[in-house]
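ok trying again, last paste got cut off:
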Amino acid sequence: MDFNVKRLAADAGTFLSRAVQFTEEKLGQAEKTELDAHLENLLVRAENTKHWTERIMKQTEVLLQPNPNVRLEEFVYEKLEKKAPTRMNNHELLGQSMIESGGEFGPGTAYGKALIKCGETEKQLGGAERELIQSSAINFLTPFRNFLEGDFKTILKEKKLLQVKRLDLDAAKTKLKKARMADGRAAAEQELRMTQSEFDRQAEITRLLLEGVSSTHAHHLRCLNDFVEAQSTYYAQCYHYMVDLQKQLGSFPSTFSNNNRSSAPGGISVSASLPSAPAGRSSSAASGGFNELRSSNGSRKARVLYDYDAASSSELSLLADEVIVVSSVVGMDSDWLMGERGNQNGKVPITYLELLN
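nice, full thing came through this time. structure:
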C-alpha cells in the first residue's frame, strides 16, 4: 500500500514538473531544448506526407464514387465491418432501362434492337467501372489508408513521447540551475544524466521511424502505378466497347426505304426488313448495275458504303470504304450477292455496296 502511494506521489510530481516546464516555456520564462535540424525536417516531411495522403485519398474516393451519400454509407459499413449491399451503378441502371425499353418496342424492330445493344454495352461499361473501383480500393486506397491508420499513428505516438522526454530533460536542467546545496546538485546532475539518456534514446527511435517515410513514398509510388494501370485498362475497355457498339449500330438502317414498309399501330411506318439502303442511296438508281451483274454471272469490284456486321456464319462482315469482289449465285435472294475478300467469302447485302467500273 505504501509503495502504491509513493508511486502515485512520484507520478504526480513528474506530471507537475512537466506542466510547470511547459507553462514557463510558453511564457518565455524557461529555455527549451531544440531538436536537431535533421529531425525537424523529418517531422515536417512526415506531416506533409500525412496531409497530402489524406487529400489524395479523399479526391480519389470522390472520383470513384461521386455520390456523397453512397460514400458515407460505405464508410459506415466499413466501420461496422459489414459488407455494403450490392447496387447497380449508373451505367448498369441506364443499360437495364434500355434493355427493358428495347424489349417493349420489340427486339425485331430496328429501334428496339438498337436499344438492347446499347443497353448491353452500358452494362459492360458498368462492369468495367466496378472492376476499376475494386482494383483501386485494393491496390491504391487501402495502402494509403494503412499508412494513415498504422505507420503515421505510430509516428505520432513516438513524437508525443519525445515531447514528454524533452520536457523531463528541460525540467531537470532547470532543477540543476536552482540547486544550491551539494547534495541537491548531485541528485539534480544524476537526474539530468538520466533524462538526457532517455531523451536521446527516444529521439533515435523517432528518427528511425521518420526515416521510414522514404519507404512509404516508394510503396505509394508503386501503388500509384497500379492505379494508373487500372485506369488505363478501364478506359481501354470503355473505348473497345463503344467502338464495337458503333460497328453494330452501323449495320442498322440509317433511313427507311420508301418501299417495303408496313404500318404499325398508330399509323407509324416502320421498315419491314433489314438491311435497308443507306442514307441518300436510291435502290432504283443502283439496281441497273446489279441486274447486269446477275445476268452476266460474272464478278465485279464493289466499294463498301458503310460497316456491316455479319448476322451469321454464311455472311461476310464489311468495313466502310473497303473494296471487295462480288458475284451473283444462282438461286440467291435478289437483295444479296456473294462477297469475297482474300480467302474470306460470304453473303453481303447489295444496299451496302456500290459497284465500281
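cool. Confidence is low (pLDDT under 50) at residues 254-274, 279-285. The beta strands are 261-263, 269-271, 299-304, 323-327, 336-341, 344-349, 353-355.
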